[in-house]
Each structure stands twice: as C-alpha cells, then as structure tokens.
Fold this protein.
Amino acid sequence: MARRKYTGRSEEAVSTVVSAILLLALVVALITSINVRYVPQWTEDAEHLHMRTVTNDMAHLKSGVDLMLTISATGSNSFSAGIPITMGGGEVPFFSSLSSSSTLLLNTRTVNMYVITELGGVNQDTGDMMKDMGSVDFLSNNDHYPNQRFSYECGGLVLGQDNRSVMKMVPHISVTKSLNDTIDVTFDAVKLGGLQRTMSSNSMEEVYVASRNSVSVYDGSTLVDEITLLVESENSMAWQDYLNKLMQDSNLDADQYSINSNSTAVVLHISGDEGADIRPMLNVHTFNVSLNVL
C-alpha cells in the first residue's frame, strides 16, 4: 500500500508567499497611486506656498529701500541692509525631498527712464542720469505651479506671469492738482548700481543694498508748461496700468494728459492750461546692489 504524503506545511508556505506578494503588490499600487494622483497636487501647493514666501521677501526688499529713502530725507549718513530671499521650495515630506531651484539676477536687464520738461518752447531732459536704472529679478523654476517673475525696478515691484505683468507695490510717483490748478508732479526714482550677477540656488540667498547718493534734479522752485515721463522696460504693461490708475486719481482733466505704450516702453505726457502751471520735483536715489556671497 502506497504511503500518503503530508502536504499541509507546503500549502501553508505557498499561502504565506502568495499573501506576501499580494500585500507587496497592494503597497506598490498604493504608493504609485499616491505619487501619480496626489504628490503632484501636494507639490503644486508647496510651490504656491513658496511663491507667497518669495512675494513677502521681495516686498521686504522694496520696503527696505523705501525705509532708506525716508531716512535719507533726514540727512543721515550712508546705510545698508541685507534682505534674505528664499530660493527653494516645493518639497513634500516623506514623498519628495527635492525642492525647486530659482534664479536671482542683478542688473541684467535694460531699464531706462527719461523725464523731459518744456518751458516756453525750450526742452530740458535728464539725459543719461536716469539711464540704466538697474533691476533685481527673481525667476522661479517650478515643476507644477506656474512660474512667476518678480522684478524690482525704479522703486516699484512688478509681478510677471506668462506675457502679463502687474505692479504689486508702486514706485514713489505722485501727481496732484491743487486748488489754484497748479499740478504737482513728485518722483523719487531709485537707481540700482553694481555688477551684473546671476545665481541659481535652492537655499537662502541675500541681496545686499547700500546707499550711494541722492541728486535733486527738480526741486519744485520752477514751473513748466509740459512734462513727459518715458519708461523703457519689458514690464511696460505693468507701468501702463499703474500710470493709468495714477492719473485717474490725480483729478486732472482727461485732455491734460495722455499715456501711450508698446511692448517695451510707456510714455506719460502731462500738459497744463495755458502758461506754466506744472511744478516738477524729481530726486534720483542711487543704491549699490550685490549678492552677499562668501
């Protein structure tokens, strides 16, 4: 009579292996599903949070220079400040430890300004004094959230995305009409000097700003017939929208000013009534900017 083989333990071993394989397959499927369906959204949210942080950092850069302008009005000596910029973001704990990098660019773009006044048919302009106004640009390199560009130029902070730009924090320009119909045009222009620099990073970098000098071009003691402001910048859309809003709030009549623009420049022209009735006050403040790299 043939002996009967006992197969219970073999079946239990096979069952254990199959269970382990099924469990492993379930875990792999779960991880794959999370990486495909959820991690991109989490990464986009993290990159969005990073962009909000950068907005605050660039706002602190603009506010820091504004504070220096206020202090300079008191006749204080030279001063400087370092503003940290958060370059990396977008990491997702436990799933993605990689953070996106960003790029800082100092004085790599052409930004020019010209102020032209006319009195009795004679024109006077600022010439080269307001050429090469400089800029600090932040360019993101996101994987999921739309890339954005922050630009500090001429005292204003511009946010750019795709082919559009908007002035997030305005420069120091004011246009007001007094009770005697005199038009006061006041402008504190910020000019950034220093070497051209470009740096890509995913950590923390510091933009170092140091005051150099201030020059008064028009002190308000002379009235003129007409004044023209020309801004040459790739952010002309932001400047156009800003100047439109500025003039709408100025109480000037529609026939007393005009604004024209194209993709690289915007022109604001103001003409008063007959006779000299525009009082220009223009100061150009120069700062050195650098990356505080050891």
